């Protein structure tokens, strides 16, 4: 029940100790403010990292080759390991049950693309139809590569949004002819990519077409796959890691590469990397919570101290209350209510300032590592419960001390 007299007493006590109450409340507000800012930036880090993984499928396995750095089986270092169509076929056949999407890639950097007098340099990628899902590309218009395009070596192209903007100037590119190093291709699709302009500055064409049109033979630059996901994330990570290791061993054995030559054959596993990064984010978030909670505790200790001082100053008054019949529970309720009130008001000020600052700077913080730091609703509710618990904790010891005061001792107190 709302007790107006009790609230009047609380405000009277606060009014008598304005500076002391302000400084104590400031420590609580600072603790909540720091916690909110830390959790907001923790959320921003998580968003930034997730955006990096969204550029490609999270469960992607990529196979790339370079030059050998170690001699092996009588072969000197310095050999370039060239992947070919047969490598793609062999891996597909061997691991078909574990793989979801598959593509071999023949790419050319800085390919000159021309349309109606407009020219730009973009990356050309000869690929399989599954490239759409491996690259996490979303069709904006038209279609992606098809198996018929592959079988018939059609001269068709799917361009990124940035190429559409650069070359077509608002015109619909579907059905138009572009020239890539003098070879004509018909645009059949336009795609967007979570990676933005860098990922949208590519032209996808059928792999066999690119190899024939640009003298690629049967060479490919890399292989890319996605692993079939399990409901158990750790199980999926383990499968992805095992496949990556097995593929690496297969390529090294085929081309006589030293088992410890990390440069010649590189198999990247985004699922395993994602787990490492997300685990690191969880650690960072826990550290931020730890720092924030202990900062709040410092403020709570201040509130508890001020309540002890108030109890000491009001010892005689409390004694009189008990002498005329006040129950210990009413004394405890008075002290707890005052402690919770001071803590809650200061804490909510810190909470609102922290959320307000994050809202203000959120649009300005947008890079590869931190994106739009904000505090979600669940975190805000958790912070509110922390405030209430902190206030109760701050007032508990002083309230117990007040409840134990004996009227006869209180009346003798100077």
From TrEMBL:
Signal peptide bounds: none
GO cellular component, one term: plasma membrane
Species for this entry: Patiriisocius marinus
Name of the protein in its database record: ABC transporter permease
Any Pfam family matching the protein: MacB_PCD
Subcellular location(s) of the protein: Cell membrane
Residues spanning the membrane: 21-41, 287-311, 331-357, 377-397
Residues in ABC3 transporter permease C-terminal domain copies: 289-407
Keywords for the protein's UniProt record, in alphabetical order: Cell membrane, Membrane, Transmembrane, Transmembrane helix
Start and end residues of each MacB-like periplasmic core domain: 21-238
Entry superkingdom: Bacteria
Membrane topology per record: Multi-pass membrane protein
Gene Ontology MF: a single term: transmembrane transporter activity
Family of this protein: Belongs to the ABC-4 integral membrane protein family.
InterPro entries (UniProt xref): ABC3_permease_C, MacB_PCD, Macrolide_Exporter_MacB
Primary localization: membrane
